[in-house]
Amino acid sequence: MTNEGVVVNEAIRAAWDSYRVLEKRTSPEERRQSQQRVQAAVDAYGREEVSRGTVFLVGVLTGFLIAEQDGREDRLDPLGDLIPAVIRRLPTFEMADPAQVPMATGVLMAAAMGMDTVAWRDQFGHVPPEEALVHSFVLWLLADLFDSLTERPGAIDQLMRETFDSMAEHH
């Protein structure tokens, strides 16, 4: 396993911790630990890597959402329903800069089309902090959507933790 793989894993884990900081159900103690892990990853690998981790997770969650609904009658069409459902809710985050929405939408579209979201986003240069924040909000909205579709609050957090644990075991 290359060093870069470790960086990616830690950055992706920190990106998920950013979701847990935003999530109201996270206990104060867990939120504090998540914030510390995010800060440690930013200090170790840079904010850019954590932002790319968030972009990666937007792709993963979009894939989960599409797979979760396979064969359902009332499934959300990825481009017609899923993306608008997420984008329409972005303004509920006061910190979301509307100027960053087109790029966040592009990442979602790349994800819905099965593209590598990180490779797609990388072609536009580095991720500014205002944009990184919007990707975090998109991640939260996708997670919230997943939980509501499965009608199991916290289902996505459980799934992601299992994914990280299995990733950790393979290295």
Structural write-up:
The protein is an all-alpha fold and 171 residues long. The protein contains eight helices and no strands. Helix 1 (3-22) packs antiparallel against helix 2 and helix 4 runs antiparallel to helix 5. The longest helix is centred in the middle third of the chain and has 22 residues, at 47-68. The mean pLDDT is 88.
Give the overall silhouette: globular
Number of strands: 0
What integer value in Å does the Rg equal?
A: 15 Å
Q: Which strand-content bin applies to the residues? A: under 5%
List the helices and strands and how they pair.
Blueprint: H1 3-22, H2 28-45, H3 47-68, H4 78-89, H5 101-112, H6 117-122, H7 129-150, H8 155-169
Can you give keywords for this protein?
single chain, mainly alpha, 171 residues, 8 helices
Quick overview of this protein structure:
By secondary structure, the protein is mainly alpha-helical.
